[in-house]
User: Which sequence fits this backbone?
């Protein structure tokens, strides 16, 4: 008697379902996704009764060094313009500002370190723009720029403000050009609080 495989049972066919409404599907596809907030709204505050050491973005009698990437120059030129305008508004004299252009964002840390080591500048403002491409190049450059600029500040004790845009696509730059002015304000604020700290320590 020959061995026979059991017959494969027939699967029950799924019940017919109604076709989804085409307009509803189109509406779902077209519905915009809500933007993801990159910060939390609301003001920072310190409870009463504590000593507070806080800087102000004031530039009187302060020298500022700016390192800026020439790569993606259409964007970094505007970042530079914003930073310079902010410094002028804060009272930094034009002759007290040194601008050091470098080839790209990867070179920003060593340039910032070099300026900081001269001890001529109250703060350094680093400006650049890195746009994500089809290779991991973006991650390496953006990461090294960030960690290198932080290292320059930690090793020299001179504040280094981070004004490097990291974009998914070039079109995002237009909405982030205020980063240059923001970095200038950050640098001046840190320079001021460090000056206060040195004055308090010497008393």
Assistant:
């Amino acid at each position: 008697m020959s061995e026979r495989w059991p017959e494969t049972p027939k699967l029950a066919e799924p019940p017919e379902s109604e076709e989804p409404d085409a307009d509803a599907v189109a509406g779902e596809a077209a519905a915009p996704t809500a933007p993801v907030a990159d910060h939390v709204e609301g003001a920072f505050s310190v409870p009463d009764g504590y000593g507070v050491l806080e800087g102000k973005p004031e530039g009187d009698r302060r020298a500022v060094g700016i390192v800026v990437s020439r790569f993606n120059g259409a964007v970094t030129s505007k970042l530079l313009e914003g930073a310079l305008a902010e410094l002028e508004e804060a009272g930094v004299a034009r002759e007290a500002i040194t601008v050091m252009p470098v080839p790209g964002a990867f070179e920003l840390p060593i340039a910032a370190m070099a300026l900081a080591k001269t001890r001529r500048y109250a703060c350094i403002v680093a400006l650049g723009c890195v746009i994500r491409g089809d290779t991991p190049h973006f991650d390496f450059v953006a990461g090294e720029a960030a960690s290198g600029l932080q290292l320059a500040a930690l090793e020299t004790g001179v504040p280094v403000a981070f004004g490097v845009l990291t974009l998914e696509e070039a079109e995002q730059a237009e909405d982030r050009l205020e980063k240059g002015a923001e970095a200038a304000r950050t640098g001046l604020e840190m320079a001021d609080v460090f000056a206060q700290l040195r004055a308090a320590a010497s008393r």
Remarks:
- Residues 179-202 form the longest helix (24 residues).
- The CA atoms of residues 145 and 188 lie 21 Å apart.
- The beta strands are 64-69, 97-102, 123-131, 160-167.
